[in-house]
Amino acid sequence: MCGIVGYVGSGSASKILMDGLRKLEYRGYDSAGLAVLEGTDLQVRRSAGKISSLEKVLSEDPIDGSMGVGHTRWATHGRPNEENAHPHRDCTGKLVLVHNGIIENYRDLRDELLAKGHKMASETDTEVIAHLVEENYTQDLAEAVREALKKISGVYALVVLHSDEPGKLIIARSGPPLVVGIGSGEMFVASDIPAVLHHTRRFIYLNEGEIGVVTSETATFTDLEGKAREAEEVNITWDPIMAEKGGYKHFMLKEIHEQPEAIADTIRGRFFEDEGDVQLDDLELPDSLIQDLDRCVIVACGTSWHAGLVGQFLMENLAGIPTSVEYGSEFRYRNPVLNDRTLAIAISQSGETADTLAAVRECNEKGASVVCICNVVGSMITRESSGVIYTHAGPEIGVASTKAFTTQLACLVLLSIFIGRKRGVLTSDRSRELLDHLFALPHQIEEILGLEKEIEELAGRFYRYSNFLYLGRGVHYPIALEGALKLKEISYIHAEGYPAGEMKHGPIALIDENMPVVFLAPRNSVYEKVLANIEEVKARGGMVIAVSDHEDPILAEQADAVIKIPRTDPYLSPILTTLPMQLFAYHVAVLKGTDVDQPRNLAKSVTVE
Ligand code: AGP
């Protein structure tokens, strides 16, 4: 949940680390710090709050050196103050360490270390690791880290350095991600690629359970037993400015506007237009297995879970497979029944969400075939799945997921067509029809983005309300949930998503003149029923904002505002109705003056359970 960056070379470590931390701030922003080797001394600067506070500390008290580590923290153990900020030191002050994750047995370890005379300066679980490494240190830092890790239970990504072994960073991982960026006479370490992408495109992923020794010229990797691994280099093609704001006020707005291109990238090269067939190169699902499938289980969290709910409609209607959708955080606690005829689909933007990863492991252990829909190449979930469909959305920095969600939906359409065709459920005519609608989406999304001014004005009318209800039916019920989640996570306004038909079973009691209700009302088989729900709200004095693809005088008369979007196939319509949800939440949040890209209490990748 925190962001880590490391550097060893001949450049200015402070500058490189601070640049990296700024790009990782989305991972946590409770406190920040860095340590740089200045001569033979490890100099540490830390500060509570955001990176900007650390910048101030550094400008008053700079450090000059060419190797070091930096950290931006999302607090798990210990308050978000300066004492608990990373890097943490051992008793000698010669060793510093940064950590992302949670050490579960830290209390026992802390007691043991205190009994041996170690002095702790923070309330964190992390500091315990520094003292544990110190305890095992005999002029071989890698070996000391290896020994310390054998005593630790929990999850971690670590970077350690020791002033007696200059020019060497020791890195380790069990859970949260860590990558090594290869430069010329310099090396970088980071929690995520955009942190150092402006320095290099050549990366090596640190594998689960590995330790790495990184110098300015080399990076070597071993497991906890010391067995070496041949490093596999990956070339990252993202443009570094793709990872920057590109002229937009917030990453979230930039990412909303990137959706036409992101959807186009998702579908590019993945179909045979004449036959109406889809090809998914990395899926690795043998035809015999597809024929034998008797059910599908989708596992995900948050926004990705909402994509899964849409996926359920797609898999059942286009591929004819009974499908359930499960929260990653709940799945493994109820002994789910799975077998070798089950297809598990994990959906995750980051590929590092701990709960979704745990669900993937449960599926693997129980013999299901696991594939994932993911945005981050080489991430943990992709590596523990036998097949993958990459969303190709490019880096998503805003904590609120936008382009990752709509590209997940596009992937689910592709997967459902792929399986539906293989199982003979979907005719080539119907498949071609769906694909034609899919190709038209980028242009239709552009059209909706053209409504931004209108949606911004609407936000101006409604941003002072304290509660919102979002209602939709069928395939648009998940979009009601997603619209409500977007609003609450970035504007801190209470919002609930509900199936429109459930309103009369309770939520209708909430309706009065202070309760705006957002309706997803495209013209489909349940349109008339949604219209009836709108009338029920109006009859009780509620205010209605409707999103529809239909020119309907009754709707225009009933609703206080109608956002008119283009028409597409009913199964693709959620991709379009999502856009006004995102823009509305964004502009409400801007008017409320919240921190849109880094809303309070949240982090982009939730790598702890
Ligand atoms: C969405 O806006 C949220 N930030 C959050 O719900 C997110 O979708 C969830 O944490 C899952 O993340 P993942 O897709 O990276 O697994």
Description:
- The N and C termini lie close together (10 Å).
- α7 (259-267) runs parallel beside α13, α14 (428-449) runs parallel beside α19 and α15 (452-462) packs across α19.
- β9 (179-182) and β10 (187-190) form a beta hairpin.
- The chain has an eight-stranded antiparallel beta sheet with strand order 3-2-4-1-10-9-11-15, with helices on one face.
- The chain is of the alpha/beta class.
- The protein is built from 19 helices and 27 strands.
- Bound molecules: 2-deoxy-2-amino glucitol-6-phosphate.
- The site of 2-deoxy-2-amino glucitol-6-phosphate (AGP) has 15 residues, from α9.
- 2-deoxy-2-amino glucitol-6-phosphate binds at residues 301-304, 348-350, 353, 356, 399-401, 489, 605-606.
Write the layout of secondary structure elements.
Elements: E1 3-8, H1 13-24, E2 31-38, E3 41-48, H2 51-60, E4 67-73, E5 88-89, E6 95-103, H3 106-115, H4 126-136, H5 141-150, E7 154-162, E8 169-174, E9 179-182, E10 187-190, E11 202-205, E12 210-214, E13 219-223, E14 228-229, E15 234-235, H6 251-257, H7 259-267, E16 271-272, E17 277-278, H8 287-292, E18 295-300, H9 302-318, E19 323-327, H10 328-331, E20 342-348, H11 354-365, E21 369-374, H12 380-383, E22 387-390, H13 403-422, H14 428-449, H15 452-462, E23 467-472, H16 477-491, E24 494-499, E25 516-520, H17 527-539, E26 543-548, H18 553-558, E27 561-564, H19 573-592
Parallel strand pairs: 18-19, 18-20, 20-21, 21-22, 23-24, 23-25, 25-26, 26-27
Antiparallel strand pairs: 1-4, 1-10, 2-3, 2-4, 5-6, 6-7, 7-8, 8-12, 9-10, 9-11, 11-15, 12-13, 13-14, 16-17
Bound molecules: 2-deoxy-2-amino glucitol-6-phosphate.
2-deoxy-2-amino glucitol-6-phosphate is lined by residues 301-304, 348-350, 353, 356, 399-401, 489, 605-606.
